[in-house]
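Are you able to produce any protein sequence you like plus the matching backbone structure tokens because I've never seen that pairing?
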Amino acid sequence: MIERDDLKAAVGSGLISEKQAAGLISLSDSRRGARENLNPGDEPFELFKGFNEIFIVIGLLILSIGWWGVIALILSTRLGGLQTDMAIACLSSAIPIWLLSEYFIRKRRMIAPAIALAIMFASNAAFGLITYMSEPFMIAQNDYSSVPLPLLLSTFALAIYWWRFRVPFAMAIIAVGLFAVAVVYAASREGRVADLSEFFLLSAGGPFAWITLALGILVFAVAMMFDMSDPHRVTRRSANGFWLHVVAAPALVNTMALSLLDQDSNLILLAVLLLFAIVAIVIDRRSFLIAAIGYIVALAATVFDGDGAALTVLVLGIVLLLLGAFWERIRARVLRLMPGFIPLHRLPPSQI
């Protein structure tokens, strides 16, 4: 019997393409009845395949520090034209990042180096474009009107990077980049943000909370498109969906929860959090549930006093353990209660 490690080795040797291997895995899983290789309740997730990848990531970080150290020494001998010099430095840095990505991502199919290189490419593009295209004196005066365009261009550059290398983690950075572009653009039009709560309170006067909510819905919709195109979660489309959910969940949960808390709508708040938990169970994504739980923990630490906070955390721990132990059974019962218009055949199947 050909196992998944054999298919990975075949892809690494160039015998078959990754698309062909994913097609074979998908066909095999569908013939055997959905995610047989996973334990009941498991969700595919992988940050690295082995310690060698961690070793390579450390090497990339040291290489990056040394590279920028050398560039700093070169620039220290020059006078004037700092913006242009920094832009050229970032452009020259993008070339080795791209070449390293060709080797470690497209050829070696490594996960942790792919995440590190995506972060390096995104930060390098954003820093270079903002340095070259923005006005530092305006930024010093809290005028960010020159920042949205370079941020947007750097996000577009990262989208090209994703199109080439298909790094799932890059989807999360793209979503965060779009969020940053929208918020900075709104801030440049509305003036300074008086309070960080404006980003999450729908009752605030500015547009920031509505931008957060709208982008959260948009990112969630794109994540579901990836998820529903790969219900058995055997390709990188599922990983793309996972990272997008990581970004969408906090934006949705925190925005709605904080707005309801500000209006003292505690019962509605509990209902909304319960709704998010049901959504997380139905789509079989724990990121939504983790976002809600993280909010409750923060709520217990900042709002509830005395024994109330301790009791809340205690109950939360019990609920987490129960869900972890019986996730698949709970999900099977919830799926049976779902109305017929929900396309359950395009969601991860339940083994119960």
Q: What stands out?
A: Residues 259 and 265 are 9 Å apart (CA to CA).
